[in-house]
Amino acid sequence: MTLTHVQDLDTPALLVHRSRLEGNIAGMQRVADQAGVRLRPHIKTHKSKEIAKLQLAAGAKGLTCAKLSEAEAMSEVCDDLLVAYPIVGEAKFDRLEALSGRVRTRVSVESLEAAQALNSHLARSGRTQEALVKVESGLARTGVEAGELRGFLEQVLRLDRIRVVGLFTHEGIAYRCSGRTEIAGLLAGIAGRLAGMRETFHQVVGIEPEVSPGCSLTAKALTTSHGFTEIRPGTYVFADTFCVESEVFAEEECALAVLVRVIAVKGDGRVVVDGGSKTFAMDRHPRRGHGMVVGHPEIFFDRLSEEHGVLLTKTPERHRVGDLLEIIPAHVCPAVNLHDSLFLREGDEVLDEWRIDARGCVR
Fold it and tell me: Whole-angstrom Cα distance, residue 255 to residue 205?
């Protein structure tokens, strides 16, 4: 692309600080290396082959994806993928078979019914499949409870085509914590539960399991004492408002902001920008609203409609129609999914435009 400046971009647009991005990637790799675990970052945050390549070049041992379509996109840059989401249905089993013919895959199992269906499909194709058992850790979505693990493993072991190799969890409940100390305590508690489940796994399956938590906030509190073998953080590449409010990341570490333009200024304190729910998604932080306005801590990002973002300020007269603002989203992952590309920057210079290759990959 022709190099330009941030001020020349059409809005809304995703801006990514190259140096901050690279610093976040290197920093999390150091965390993993110092704790003696593998780093398998989750690509759901950036969905970009270019960023995945940076993570792999820095030392990541593989990638984590949520949906098969994300894994299909990332198979072009990585040959070791974990699909950390239940795979259910013959259409998806067919796609998993095709993907597994190209790269190494591991999948999630947490339901006996889904495991039995996958096993039947594998028997027809003559393949075997490595899997990790999803463990519930507080979000109350999917996952096996600690007290259910022994019985679940015994049943899965009767399925001759599925080879369980470990345990994984997503401790996203950390985003409800109030700061570093509480997050560290949460991680210690999860590590303790996983230690007991690890012993159960060893007793039933007869091998030492992989033990894989996944959260950018808890990863920063990781030490060698937690007993994990790999970690799967995702948001750390960009960070966001929730990360900053958690006290784990500084605003200066946030690598992504949404460039928007002021389209209306009202005397009652409203400043309206050209990015709404189709730009930021609907996630909202209780203290900051839908995001942090860079350089304007006094502004509250109050509400969204599809095309409008409504900011509130006591000094609306400081803003003019046409002004540019940069906003760090409350939750960066769904915001990125709404855009086709991101613009790499250094200062005010635009260095490149990168496609968001796995955006919209819902299947």
Answer: 42
